[in-house]
Fold each of these.
Amino acid sequence: MSSEAHGPTAGEYITHHLQHLQKDFSLQSVKQSHIVDFSLFNLDSLVFSIVLGALACFFMWRAARKATSGVPGRFQAAVEILAEMVDSQAKGVIHNVTSRKLVSPLALTVFVWIFLMNAMDMLPVDLLPAAWGQAYAAAGHDAHHAYLRVVPTADLSTTLGLSTSVLLLCLFYNIKIKGLGGWGHELISAPFGAHPLLWPFNFLMQMIEFIAKTVSHGMRLFGNMFAGELVFMLIALMGGAFTLSVTGIGLAIGHVVAGTVWTLFHILVITLQAFIFMMLTLIYVGQAHDAH
């Protein structure tokens, strides 16, 4: 008795697309992942983020190398507008000129890098995963286990890694600007006052503030990009339901219309999320310069 082959259900399709290509270096095996699992390395997020980071640096390097004092081309003009925007935002929150020499280029890099990682969501949902599945099958493996997620910022480990890097930068400037003793005194004297009985409460509030800012910084970017990725998957399911019937044709038309509308709207989302992450980075570093 034979069973007819059939495609995956909607739940199976989405579940498959939410799996990361992971590597457990202790077990030397590729394993199925979950949305949040810090025991394994998400190879797809690592590879795509590194490649896109290198691409962002290449764009900035090329713009700087091709810059002229005459009438700028469109690419140079776009980069100059972006650089001036970031620099003006940095001047508004970081008043230390020496610090801005490092933080402004860093904020520009963060914006471009996160924008490129977010923009991976604009690719067709099955484009790169299908190609990876074919390569995986050609290597003699089961294509069903060929997991691949192409949006690094829809991975919580990526966004929390970025926000943790911002936290470390803030700690660096706290110590650099205020001195180790000055920052230590601030940790136990703000926000309630310098009375010795208030030191434990002040220190606890400071730790909560650092943790809350770091977690919310990473979660905000992750939540928006993960939700956008899910919407694209649901829209893709509409196109996958095409049949020669009124319902099937209607779903196919809805797939095209909904995909187009959501893609156009998502251009704003990916740009806005990159800008918000960059601005929060500047604000947090600026706060590290301020004494309580």
Amino acid sequence: MIAETNVTVRIATIDDLAALCAVQTDIFDHTINTQRATEFLADPRHHLALAFVNDVIVGMASAVHYVHPDQEPLLFINEAGVASAFQQQGLGRELIQTLCAHGKSLGCTEAWVATEPSNIAAKRTYASVGGVEADEPFVMFNFNLNDEHNRGAID
């Protein structure tokens, strides 16, 4: 369904660092930090599916796979982003499918992702890949590890 015929989606490698650092669109929440991008791409448990038109990144989805002493490896999908000009064309679905296939190739038996109840586009995308919305919502807690008020609980 992707209208742009020259879109390529694949798992990123360190060779994609220059293209990643050159991203100038609304795909990511913040400007790319070269040091963090290098660290991410070098870490074998961090994964980034990238969508390219020629050499320009037009979409991404990130994930981390992790192991736990009492479970099979799991894939946590952190987020997905698609440039405005490429939305509503199935690119988000292809990015998530690519991440899930990659996770399966690594031995992950399950993948999961969370989004806000109001994020209809994300919910639609995740459902289109076969994701099933949880019966019970969960509550998320954030910890600001640099906040002096939290120091006593964290130190």
Amino acid sequence: MAAGTEFSATGYISHHLTHLKGTFFSGGVHLDTIVTSLFLGVVGLWLLYAVARRATAGVPGKLQAAVELLVDFVEDQVKSVFPGDRSMVGPLALTVFVWVVLMNAMDILPVDILAIGMTPISHEWRFVPTADVNTTFALALSVFGLMIFYNIKVKGLGGWLHELFCTPFGSNPILWPFNLAFQFIEYVSKPLSHSLRLYGNMYAGELIFLLLWVWAASGVVGAFFGALLGLGWAIFHILIVILQAFIFMMLAAAYIAMAHEHH
């Protein structure tokens, strides 16, 4: 909050749930989300690239061993839902998992960390990209686009259109509207559930941290229990950070795998 302003729990929470906005081609954009997402994406790619470049055939170092375990873990998980050629799906799943983990992990940082000596961006800056529905929708729509692409690539445009109009109730022309309506609901529900699940969990986690921070500012007793519960929630939130990234990755792999199935 600004100096000299009386503390208000509602104002404090609203302050931290407000994005730093800018204008791009006459449209509004969340600059904090874009900058943080791109920065973490570069960090994730650089880290994986650096480890791969320095990898040795002998006894690996701790960082190389950790990355190798991560790659094997993702490969095994993708294999369970996508038994075919994983030359594209495997790297995609790894990239999604690492990027979403890094974005989710920003929620563990203290909410006022940017206010320390960083006046230009200390107001209206949210540094948890996945707590912004625009981020999760963009990721989910990217996966949705790949799903459509592989539907057409694997089945052909005619085969995909035939599936839209003739599945699941049959190829009788009378049933085409019902098949198309069923397929429309199925296709629309995928990016919606894919994005809102991640967004809802991370937004709720961010809000709980803010509520605990407000409690900690209420006095000595509040500071003690707020700090204690905040530490407990931060430790538990580590599990949520990883679990939500894992679920998002698995759904991405499963949706692309479904595009390779013939009906």
